[in-house]
Design goal:
The structure holds two protein chains of two kinds. Chain A contains nine helices and eight strands. Chain A is α+β, with helices and mostly antiparallel strands. Chain A folds into two domains: 39-107, Alpha-Beta Plaits; 114-189, Alpha-Beta Plaits (2-Layer Sandwich), CATH 3.30.70. In chain A, strand 2 and strand 3 form a beta hairpin. The longest helix of chain A is centred in the N-terminal third of the chain and has 10 residues, at 2-11. By secondary structure, chain B is α/β, with parallel strands linked by helices. Chain B has one domain (16-145): 3-Layer(aba) Sandwich (Rossmann fold), CATH 3.40.50.12280. Chain B has a five-stranded parallel sheet with strand order 2-1-3-4-5. The radius of gyration of chain B is 16 Å and the shape is globular. The two termini of chain B are 15 Å apart. Classes of the chains: A alpha+beta, B alpha/beta. At the A-B interface, loops of A face helix 5 of B. Bound molecules: iron/sulfur cluster (4 copies).
C-alpha cells in the first residue's frame, strides 16, 4: 500500500510530468559560428564581380544595381554556403560565420589574374588581338594595323612574326581579343590562387 | 470547435510520421536527415517517427534534384500517402537543382512540378536543426483542425 502511494506521488510531481510530456533537450539553436548564407556588411561593393566569378553554384549570387551603388545578393535554394565569395571579395562586403576572422588571422586571400595563351599552330599573325585590345590602344595609340608596336608597355604585340605576350598582368579580362581573333587562337582564362602572408596583404 | 477535434489536434501534434525519398541527390542531404535520428537531436521527444513505408507517413521529405526515372515513381509515392499529408523539399536540389542545374544534365528540377510542396529547406545540405524546425512548423499548419477545414 505504501509503495503504491509512493509511486503515485512520484509520478504526480510537476517536474516529472513536465519531463514526460514535453521536449527535454534544449531548444534547437544554430551556433553563432555556423557558416550561414553570406550576409552583407557595411562595406561598399565595387562591382568587381569576384564573388560571382568564384561561386560554384549556378544562380547563387548576383551583384545588383541599387539606388546608391551595387549590392551582392545571395539566393538561398541555390547557394551551397561554401563561403568562397566571402573569401574572394577584396572589399569584405560579405560575411559568414567565422570566415572573415579566420582569413584575417591567417592572412589568406584569393588572388586572381588573367592568363593569355596563343596557339601558334592556329594563329595567322594578323595582329587583330593586339589592335583590338582596349588596354593596348590606351598604352600605345599608334599601335599599327599589323599589331607591331614600339612600346614595351603593351600587353602583347607581334614580334618577329608571332604574338609575344609582354604584360599579362595588365589584362582586364574583357576578352575583346578572343572575340576579334578570326581563328580562336588566343584564349583568355581567369586564374585563381589561394595566397597567404605578405602576398595576401598586397 | 468540438472536443473530438481538440483531442485529434493534441494527439497529432505529438505524432508526426515521416517518410523520405531520395530522387537523385548527392547523398549529402540524406546524411543530414539521418543525423536527425541521432541522440543529439532526439526526434522522438517531439513525436516524430520515421517510416520506410509512405502509406504510414504524414510528412514526405523529398531529397534530390529529380532524375527522369523518378518522375512517375515520385507521383506514385505521393499518391500512396494517406490524407492529411504534406511534402517538404530538403536541400537545394528539389528547389533549384543546386549544382546540377546546368546545361545537359540528366535532372529535371524543381520537384514542385510533380507534387505539391508545402515547405522548402534550402541548404547544401541543410542542418538537422533546420530540417527539424521545418517539419515541426509545417506539420501543425496542415493537421490542425484538419477535419473542420474540409468542405
Ligand atoms: S557561399 Fe558559395 S555558393 Fe553561396 S553565393 Fe557564395 S560562393 Fe556562391
Ligand atoms: S561583393 Fe565584393 S567581390 Fe562581389 S562585386 Fe562587390 S566588391 Fe566585388
Ligand atoms: S582580354 Fe581584353 S584586356 Fe586582356 S588582352 Fe584581351 S583584349 Fe586585352
Ligand atoms: S587575332 Fe588571333 S590569329 Fe590574329 S594574331 Fe591574334 S591570336 Fe593570332
Amino acid at each position: 500500500m505504501r509503495s503504491i502511494v509512493y509511486y503515485v506521488r512520484e509520478f504526480l510531481r510537476p517536474e516529472w510530468l513536465k519531463k514526460f510530456f514535453f521536449a527535454k533537450t534544449a531548444p534547437l539553436v544554430t551556433p553563432s559560428y555556423f557558416k550561414d548564407y553570406p550576409s552583407r556588411t557595411e562595406k561598399e561593393c565595387t562591382a568587381c564581380l569576384s564573388c560571382m566569378m568564384i561561386c560554384p553554384a549556378p544562380g547563387a549570387i548576383a551583384v545588383l544595381r541599387k539606388k546608391d551603388g551595387w549590392e551582392p545578393e545571395v539566393y538561398p535554394g541555390h547557394c551551397i554556403r561554401c563561403g568562397l565569395c566571402v573569401e574572394a571579395c577584396p572589399e569584405g562586403v560579405l560575411a559568414s560565420g567565422r570566415i572573415l576572422d579566420v582569413t584575417r588571422r591567417d592572412k589568406t586571400a584569393f588572388s586572381s589574374w588573367y592568363r593569355l595563351q596563343v596557339d601558334d599552330t592556329l594563329c595567322m599573325r594578323c595582329g587583330n588581338c593586339c589592335v583590338s585590345c582596349p588596354v593596348n590602344r590606351q598604352v600605345d595609340p599608334q599601335l599599327a594595323g599589323t599589331g607591331t608596336s614600339a612600346s614595351d608597355e603593351v600587353i602583347m604585340r607581334i614580334e618577329g612574326g608571332r604574338v609575344t605576350i609582354l604584360h599579362e598582368e595588365k589584362c582586364t579580362g574583357c576578352k575583346t581579343c578572343e572575340n576579334n581573333c578570326p581563328n580562336r587562337a588566343i584564349r583568355v582564362a581567369r586564374m585563381v590562387e589561394g595566397v597567404q602572408g605578405e602576398e595576401a596583404e598586397a | 470547435m468540438s472536443i473530438l477535434q481538440d483531442i485529434k489536434n493534441a494527439v497529432r501534434s505529438r505524432s508526426i510520421h515521416v517518410s523520405y525519398v531520395d530522387v537523385g541527390s548527392c547523398n549529402g542531404c540524406d546524411i543530414e536527415v539521418l543525423a536527425c535520428l541521432a541522440p543529439r537531436y532526439d526526434i522522438e521527444q517531439y513525436g516524430i517517427y520515421v517510416h520506410n513505408n509512405p502509406r504510414e507517413a504524414d510528412v514526405l521529405l523529398v531529397i534530390g534534384s529529380v532524375t527522369p526515372q523518378w518522375v512517375d515513381k515520385l507521383r506514385d509515392i505521393w499518391e500512396k500517402i494517406p490524407e492529411p499529408k504534406v511534402a517538404v523539399a530538403i536541400g537545394n536540389c528539389p528547389i533549384s537543382g543546386c549544382v546540377y542545374a546546368r546545361r545537359g544534365t540528366l535532372t529535371t528540377p524543381p520537384v514542385e512540378n510533380y507534387i505539391p510542396i508545402a515547405a522548402q529547406v534550402p541548404g547544401c545540405p541543410p542542418r538537422p536543426t533546420e530540417i527539424l524546425n521545418a517539419i515541426l512548423s509545417v506539420a501543425p499548419l496542415i493537421y490542425k483542425d484538419y477535419e473542420e477545414k474540409q468542405p
